[in-house]
Amino acid sequence: MTRTRPAVAIRTGTTADTDVITALLAEAFLTGPVADWLVPDPRRRRDAYLAFFRQEVERALRGGYVHLATDQSAVALWQLRMRPPAESAERPERLPGACAPFADRFAALAAAFADHHPTVPHHYLAYLAVAPPRQNRGVGAALLRHQHAALDRAGIPAYLEASNGDNRRLYLRHGYRSAAPFHLPFDGPPLWPMWRDPRAV
């Protein structure tokens, strides 16, 4: 018998959700190769991530859009990249104090993303985060399907960077093509640029 995954209810995130979304992102990305590289001191990583992701959530709410599972178990932050941004827009705003000791890594990460970002109009999946207890249960996939349906209707492609092999395989299953990875500096881990053309509807 095939097990059917439960439906995932999704709504648009608002400024009232900032604290919840920030905590969700920090928890979901707290471990892994990029986390170890970005904030090598695990004792300081959570505070740095909470400060950094609050800034990223506020940025997405201002100039992009946020999709949140109604049970607050997962979130997707998208940016509209229908024209090349000014160079300053590719770089993070002034880093919060908790991030300052690791400013060189945050700056290098932003520069690497900017150097490999396509200039063709698209929507950019900056972050897809699922709470650790809900991972591998189809919640992230539901958020992808939700946005892909809208992109397909509008004929708009999507782009992202996969941070590990498991994520890359998820995105491959959802119609993305993977380019060769690029590596972060300072002996950093690989990231895979991935592109999805819209499907005919």
UniProtKB/TrEMBL annotation:
PROSITE patterns: GNAT. Keywords: Transferase. Residues 8-199 form the N-acetyltransferase domain. InterPro entries: Acyl_CoA_acyltransferase (IPR016181), GNAT_dom (IPR000182), Trichothecene_AcTrans (IPR052523). One of its GO terms (molecular function) is acyltransferase activity, transferring groups other than amino-acyl groups. It comes from the Bacteria. Pfam families: Acetyltransf_7. PANTHER family: GNAT FAMILY ACETYLTRANSFERASE, N-ACETYLTRANSFERASE DOMAIN-CONTAINING PROTEIN. This is Acetyltransferase (GNAT) family protein. It comes from Micromonospora pattaloongensis. The lineage of its organism: Bacteria, Bacillati, Actinomycetota, Actinomycetes, Micromonosporales.
